[in-house]
Amino acid sequence: ADELVKAVHRVMTFADGERRLKVRANADNAEDAARARRFGAQGIGLCRTEHMFLGDRRELVERLILAENKQEQEEALEQLLPLQKGDFVELFEAMDGLPVTVRLIDPPLHEFLPDLTELSVKAAVAEARGEDVSESQRLLHCVQRLHEQNPMLGLRGVRLGLVIPGLFIMQVRAIAEAAAERRAAGGDPHAEIMIPLVGTVQELEIVREEAEQVIREVQQASGTELDIAIGTMIELPRAAVTAGQIAEAAEFFSFGTNDLTQTTWGFSRDDVEASFFSQYLEKGIFGVSPFETIDRDGVGELVRMGAERGRATRPGIKLGVCGEHGGDPDSVHFFHEVGLDYVSCSPFRIPVARLEAGRAATESEGSDFR
Ligand code: PEP
Ligand code: MG
Q1: How far is the CA of 257 from the centre of ligand 2 (A)?
Q2: Residues 264, 304 contacting (CB under 8 angstroms)
Q3: Atom 4 in ligand 1: which residue has the minimum CA distance?
Q4: What is the pTM of this model?
Q5: Which H/E stretch holds residue 320?
Q6: Rounded to an integer, what distance in angstroms lies between the CA atom of residue 308 and that of residue 325?
Q7: Which of 21, 130, 133, 313 is deepest in the core (most CB within 10 A)?
């Protein structure tokens, strides 16, 4: 077994020496980050901050979204800020010296709203009993107003950030303050802020301006120079097509191939178990699910186009991918061909991604490391 471990180690060292793609991890907490580091991750390519709001904190986000006035909003934000800051301090500590791409919150809205049917029933029961229904009616109207038939195509990502006052800014402040705190403690944090689901450069410009303002404020208050890059996900066909414009406001792109596959094919990510999908596989309409292996002709072309157009506007723009495809062998080869800078995948897939990135590099140079 010892010999085997040594052999694997030699192969990995060789692959690492050859590969041009960096390999980062998708991780949302210090434990996953530490695990990713042990597997050889060179940073975090995607921290999904919505995962930090599950459990006890869900209610705070719900309160923020449903706030009736500025005071209620501010109360919720004040409670959220120190919690978020604590999350990032831990994450930056675990990834000291390495880049950490923090994606601002991107949940489908219904995950943070009370259930509409339940609310309707409660309001009806209260009314039948002759109770005071003004509060339950208010809540019901509020949730009705926000209810969506297709939450995955609705108020998500940057849209939520633009519509709910203070939400993104609270997160940016938490990131900046956490970075300043780590710096003051002698650490070496490398925070990057990523905006999800951008479809037009205007969305990014608005968020960027507000974020830069907050980062400046934190820099001044802490007396620390914070070099925080702001970039975006490219996960909508429109974003790939207009990548040349978007790159004006983005220091990096990360291709979100999960959503990009969903929106390019028009297949729901959450329904790939649907019967027609398996029939498609059986009929050979595609060999493998495009959610697993990058569809080179369609989704892949959009990635290529996004990369080329982004580079044309901003030569040297950092390019990565953080969808599930980032850890899929065949897709890793494709991302090497397109010339991305890194792939980001779940911690357990990192060794495979390192190996495949090494193989892709030597294959394209005609070596026999296969
Ligand atoms: C993606 O869409 O590919 C992505 C990485 O974001 P999420 O899976 O969180 O939507
Ligand atoms: Mg996405």
Answers
A1: 7
A2: no
A3: 256
A4: 0.95
A5: strand 318-321
A6: 20
A7: 21
Distance 219 CA to ligand 1 centre (A): 31
- Residue of minimum CA distance from atom 9 in ligand 1: 48
Query: Among the atoms of ligand 1, which is closest to the Cα of residue 46?
Result: 5
CA atoms of 240 and 281, how far apart (whole Å): 27
Give the Cα separation of 342 and 337 in Å (integer): 12
Prediction ipTM score? 0.99
Q: Residue 29 has which token pair?
A: 């907490």
Distance 161 CA to ligand 1 centre (A): 16
| Phi/psi at 158 (5° precision) | -60, -30
The phi, psi pair for 26, rounded to 5°, reads -90, 115
Among 318, 321, 328, smallest CA distance to 352 is for 328
**Residue 106 CA, ligand 1 centroid: distance in Å:** 9
Predicted confidence (pLDDT) per residue in 51-100, tens digit = 999 888 999 999 999 998 999 999 999 999 999 999 999 999 999 999 99
Does the beta carbon of 322 sit less than 6 angstroms from any atom of ligand 1? yes
Q: Is the CB of 152 under 6 A from ligand 1?
A: no
* Cβ of 323 below 6 Å from ligand 1: yes
Q: Whose C-alpha lies nearest to ligand 1, atom 10?
A: 259
